[in-house]
Amino acid sequence: MMKKVKTLVVDDHPLFAQATKQILQEIDAIECIGVVGTGAECLRFIKSERPDLIFLDYHLPDEPGSVLAQKIKDALPAVKIVIFTGIDIADMFNHLIKIGVSGIISKESSEATIRNMVNCILDNHTVLPLSVFHQTRLVLENSVAELELTEDEITIMRMIVGGHTHDQIAVTIHVSKRSVDNYLKRIYDKLGVKSKVQAIEKFVQSKYYAEAVQGG
Prior knowledge:
- It contains 11 helices and 5 strands.
- By secondary structure, it is of the alpha/beta class.
- The protein has 2 domains: 5-133, 3-Layer(aba) Sandwich (Rossmann fold), CATH 3.40.50; 151-215, Orthogonal Bundle (Arc Repressor Mutant, subunit A), CATH 1.10.10.
- It starts with a strand and ends with a helix.
């Protein structure tokens, strides 16, 4: 009998999580061994159960999917990770590929596409939308080593990564909510990004995030 591929679903939306689990369970090679809703639960689960494949929601309540994916790969280098997302994260493809994820797929994908993705990954291949494939090119990633953020800007980005609201940030650094918005505009300019998701990705690759993790 062929050994089943132990699979974990990480998604904080119960309906999406159960729907994903149901699709995966219909694939002969897959054994869905669990569903968890946070990064912390995921790390505890993989420590004891050591899954072979993880379907990982990009947006989790406690940390970005890219940060969690890196922690998972550090703990289980051979595990295959599929980023399962409801938003456009095309700008993060380079970083996610660098981490070592095996696939990136939209939550709007059909069941057939999800099954095809899984089968390809189990055969050490992946699936890309044609729109992405047609735009594929090798690019040099912008260096993050030379970013110079102020202490307040670093605090703001650490809190953004931690899921804090603009109101909470304003209280912490003793400024108005409008000032927080102005801070973020300057941060986006320094990071060379246009959205909060892009800013988070750039920040977690920087020396400032690494120092926060080591110090925390």
